[in-house]
UniProtKB/TrEMBL annotation:
Keywords: ATP-binding, Hydrolase, Nucleotide-binding, Transport. One of its GO terms (molecular function) is hydrolase activity. It comes from the Bacteria. It is an enzyme of class 3 (hydrolase). This is Energy-coupling factor transport system ATP-binding protein. It comes from Nesterenkonia halotolerans. Residues 72-95 are annotated as: Disordered. Belongs to the ABC transporter superfamily. InterPro entries: AAA+_ATPase, ABC_transporter-like_ATP-bd, ABC_transpr_CbiO/EcfA_su, ECF_ABC_transporter_ATP-bd, P-loop_NTPase. Its EC number is 3.6.3.-. The keyword Nucleus does not apply. Residues 21-246, 274-501 form the ABC transporter domain.
Length: 501
């Protein structure tokens, strides 16, 4: 079958489409180039379609167009027809997924119903069903500010489901979810479709959710491929050709050989840059970590796996000094310096932390200004003599340019960090961290929202850092990437850190 041949007509659903885009295009205000052009797309009741494209191809614009969220942001061409305006969408920005209007998970899940005037009892009943469907009933009374990234994403999905939409648009819906949460979500989408609901998935990765769709379409150069492919027939080569990251762990594990840049420092016995002993952490009286032991060595990447809420962010935050740990913990930095009692800003001389939400760590109005702010002037800093200071400034500019280049941010130097895609915002924080010249880099879920090139760039950044003698601890749900980039893989299970098998 040619790559984009329509599927056999026997598999086409008989009912009329709930959504039709014809020759649809969209140009953002202030831009000369369209973000989408000539898009034809039909979605039928009970159908699920995945539209995959590389970062910047327009997948999020397409999702927003379908959900009618583009409004006054620009000009559209062609037509969009929907027979049912019960379209609900979950966007691709994990930081914008909860409203900030509710205190608890239950209130957040009930909120959309309240906003459209449903009686409170109905809202709560619907919320209870949504939480149950997504397997997060146990979180109902939890305050939103205490949720892990995946828990927050599931809460946002639960809110969406309480509106009983007829069409669900999910932009990178799997991104903060662990394997079992993705499977749970896939199961609830199956139930949703069985009752006539239609699903449009968009994103840059082929994973547990997109493999469940009826069709996969590729968006390249702002245009959508015609017809579609059965997800089971999509090959790694086709995905690579379209710039899509293939997150199907099973497909890659047997073939996987870790790709490492040459690194003379690697091998057992080289310097331990961070030695952790007896690290225990409680959050709101629940023990999240119990007696964790960990060695991070120069030249090595350690991948940290674990279910949603298992404590990965807690571990990284406690090493960075941002989450208090129990008495008796020892955290030895480079040269054996004890850091456990040091505040976060002192630990930052050795350890750089890139948290889950990049927005928390960005404050300048352009990418370039953000990186200049992060980069120290070198030993002596502001006290340098004028000539030395000029030289140090020149060097800093060169360092910033080099890191921007490596992180793929050069073209965005003058952009506001909040105008970047979520993955690029994270790149900006990673670039700032690298400019601090830390010995140890702690990264929390840096793979979210990346296409194949974005993943390769990230791997390269980490490998360059370890090749220069640094050590990396990186929390991720992407088992394929963890196997490829990690010298070691550890898994957090029931408060304990174990080798991943
Ligand atoms: N400030 C807080 N107060 C109370 N509990 C919290 C707080 N922050 C996190 N938790 C809880 O601690 C546990 C570990 O959370 P953490 O964010 O470390 O998990 P994670 O492994 O990073 O999860 P994810 O993969 O979803 O990001 C979870 O049950 C979480 O809900």
């Amino acid at each position: 079958m040619p790559e984009h041949a329509p599927l056999p007509s026997s598999s086409a659903p008989p009912s009329p489409p709930v959504l039709t885009l014809r020759e649809f295009g969209f140009t953002y205000r202030g831009s000369d180039d369209p973000a989408l052009t000539g898009v034809d797309l039909m979605l039928h009741p009970g159908e699920a379609v995945a539209v995959l494209g590389p970062q910047g191809a327009g997948t999020s614009t397409l999702a927003r167009a379908v959900a009618r969220l583009l409004g006054e942001h620009g000009e559209s061409t062609g037509s969009r027809e929907a027979t049912d305006d019960g379209i609900g969408m979950l966007g691709d920005d994990p930081e914008a997924q909860v409203t900030g209007l509710s205190r608890t998970v239950r209130e957040e899940a009930a909120l959309p119903g309240r906003l459209i005037g449903l009686p409170l009892q109905d809202c709560l009943a619907r919320a209870a069903v949504s939480l149950e469907t997504l397997g997060i009933t146990a979180l109902a009374e939890r305050e939103l500010s205490t949720l892990s990234g995946g828990e927050r994403q599931l809460t946002a999905l639960a809110s969406l489901l309480t509106l009983h939409p007829r069409v669900l648009v999910l932009d990178q819906a799997s991104q903060s979810l662990d394997h079992s949460a993705r499977r749970r979500l896939a199961r609830s989408l199956r139930q949703f479709r069985a009752t006539g609901g239609a699903v449009l998935l968009t994103g840059h990765q082929h994973d547990e959710l997109s493999v469940e769709c009826d069709r996969v379409l590729f968006l390249d150069e702002k245009r959508l491929s015609a017809g579609g492919l059965m997800p089971s027939s999509v090959t790694p080569v086709q995905l690579a050709a379209h710039g899509i990251w293939d997150a199907r762990h099973e497909v890659h594990t047997p073939l996987n050989t870790p790709v490492h840049l040459p690194n003379s420092a690697r091998g057992p016995g080289h310097e331990v840059l961070l030695r952790v002993r007896d690290l225990s952490v409680h959050r709101a009286s629940v023990q999240v970590l119990d007696g964790v032991e960990l060695d991070l060595r120069a030249g090595e990447v350690t991948a940290l796996l674990g279910a949603n809420g298992s404590g990965k962010s807690t571990l990284l935050g406690s090493l960075a000094g941002l989450v208090p740990s129990g008495a008796g913990a020892s955290i030895l930095g480079p040269g054996g310096v004890e850091l456990a009692a040091e505040p976060a800003h002192r630990r930052a001389n050795h350890i750089a932390w890139v948290g889950q939400d990049p927005g928390d760590q960005l404050s300048a109005s352009t990418v370039h200004a953000e990186l200049m702010r992060a980069a120290p002037l070198g030993p002596g800093g502001r006290r340098l003599k004028r000539a030395d200071r000029l030289q140090a400034k020149k060097q800093r500019e060169l360092d910033v340019q080099r890191v921007m280049e490596m992180a793929g941010l050069t073209a965005h130097a003058e952009d506001h960090p909040y105008d970047l895609q979520p993955a690029q915002r994270k790149d900006c924080v990673i670039a700032s961290a690298l400019l601090m010249n830390p010995a140890v880099l702690l990264l929390d879920e840096p793979t979210l929202g990346r296409d194949a090139a974005g993943m390769a760039r990230l791997s390269h950044l980490l490998r360059s850092f370890t090749s220069a003698g640094g050590a990396v601890l990186v929390a991720t749900h992407d088992r394929r990437w963890a196997a490829e980039v990690g010298d070691h893989q550890l898994r957090l299970v029931a408060d304990h850190l174990l080798p991943d098998t």
